[in-house]
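Course assignment 3, question 2. Fill in each field.
Student: A.L.
Task: Predict the tertiary structure for the chain below.
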Amino acid sequence: LCHRQPVRAVTVDNSGKYMATAGVDRSLKIWDVRTFKCLQNYQISSGASHLKFSGRGVLGVALGNAVELYKDCCIKPVDHPYMRHKVFKTVSDIRFAPFEDVLGIGHGGGFSSILTPGMEDFYSIKFFLLLQLLCEGSFFYSYKLCEVKLPLIEF
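Answer field:
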């Protein structure tokens, strides 16, 4: 497990099979934890400060004032991120909601939450609306979005 320059960020996916590391040299590597073999080696636009896997295997990478999301980057090579989101100031932390692809982004200007396109389901939308309500106080906006007809799910 090595990089040519110091390592800035490390994360392991929920299954414990894959580990992602980011170096100062702008390299992002995906490792098989069981064999310690490098599966993928990417060059990203700048050195990543934070890495996180979602419960569904999407890799979040914080780069200065932007966050990039990589889908299926552990099992096949990807040419570019499937989503990039910029914030006002430098990103200080990123966290996915458990088993949902709602991403919380802490940054110098506060907190932002994003719902990743193509990954949403009923529970992700519900969680995202709750975050919007708590963080922005936009009850009317959230209420109107909740009027979408969804199947009744009982717990």
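Instructor remarks: DSSP finds two helices and eleven strands in the chain. Residues 9 and 49 are 6 Å apart (CA to CA).
Grade: pending
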